[in-house]
Amino acid sequence: MEIEVSSPRVRPTVSDASLPVHPITSLPTELLSYMFRMGAMEGPATFPTLVSHVSGYWRDVALKDSSLWTWIDFSDPFPYRRSRLWIQRSRCAPLHIVMSCKKGFNPEFVHLRHALEIALKEARRWECLSVHMDAEPLHYILRQCNICVPSLRYLSLKCTERDEMEDEYPLFGGQTPGLRRLFLDGVPVAWGGCFFQDLTELHLGYYEEELAPSLEQLTCILQRCTGLRRLVLDHTGITSSKDPDDFHPTPVRLPELKFVQCTHLDRDFYLWFARCFDAPVLESYIGNSSASDGEYEEAIANLKYRCPFPNLKRFRTQYARVFPPVALGMIDVMHRITDLEFFQCIVPNDVLEALIWQEGSCRARSLKRISLEHCQGFSVGSLITVVHSRLGATVFSAANDVARIDVLEVMQCSLTASTNDTDWLRQNVTNLVWIEQVRTMSTSPGIVLK
């Protein structure tokens, strides 16, 4: 018997047969069910209830579609009647379990235990598990979840009190054969666990050095995830556990990786990344290394000899002072780069002027878009010089492969520009986005090239 949530009902005074028929009521069941599923993707916690209270026909279609009732977030009050009702309506469909203090789940301990008991009864149906809690309740949840979850494909664990998490958690005893997407923010785990295997997406964030994996452990993790397509490492103190003289890093090749974000990491990691990382189909890279010394600059310069990212198309640097030797070394190997982005950076003119077109050069030959947001250190003259050098230029004399810049975005940058300069850019760049200039000198003749 289905658990019903009590609600007032108003009986119609007119029979259903006498009511006017709207075209929406004549849609085939399969089409209506498909529409419901699309809507549930945008609002999984509310949309199923909404459509099931429109009409008797819609309710019948919604209740027969078990996939609509799989989002279980325990945001309803104790004793979680709605959550139990949705689990019942989902029948045998895979479940998405959410326990998040950001979504209204912040119970007392006895209520937390009751909610977890409800969820654990259906553990074999878990397809996604997302937990975002304070340290104490998260600790309890992870200790109770030392069970096999054969269907789990997505796991996200976030702690709001990262300094309080000290124990290493085994994560379901390593019994997650189907896990493919793993997100960990400040939750220490056993970095040698077998759950780090066959992942397609890995996100590690907000770990102090004593809780973060070492470079050696990270190398082992990545070597077991050869099918990885997306990698995010952010605010994580990844360093080598060995003396620098004894550290001989092992190369890592990820043949399917297409997206990498490496931000707010230790200098040791960036040096290892430049020397040992190989991703032949990588298309998008986000980084912000601000440490620069002779050893690191040499490693970047040597990238052109082994070309680890031959298909890189998008390169973004954020929250950093851009050092010309490092930037030039990267630009030298980015032959297929189409999008170059800087966000909250100090960008010297030398970096932008490296993009000046030189006939026969491979440097940034495919570049179509330059974006600078909240940046400083450069002048409008360097931008104009880059754009001007690429007007009418063609790549390797191919008439259909023009080297010109199509999109130039300069947003909220500390920059002085004349009206003549911005007018010239608007005439020679297909799409110019110029927002909130700090100063505009309308009377200056500018430095427009003829």
Describe the structure in your own words.
With 450 residues, this protein is of the alpha/beta class. 28% of the residues lie in helices and 21% in strands. It is built from 14 helices and 18 strands. A 14-stranded parallel beta sheet has the order 1-2-3-4-5-6-7-9-11-12-13-14-15-17. A two-stranded parallel ribbon has the order 8-10. A two-stranded parallel sheet has the order 16-18. Helix 11 links the parallel strand 12 and strand 13 (339-346). The longest helix has 14 residues, at 29-42. It is globular and about 70 Å long. It starts with 28 loop residues before the first helix and ends in a 9-residue tail after the last strand. Residues 3-15 and 440-450 have low confidence and may be disordered.
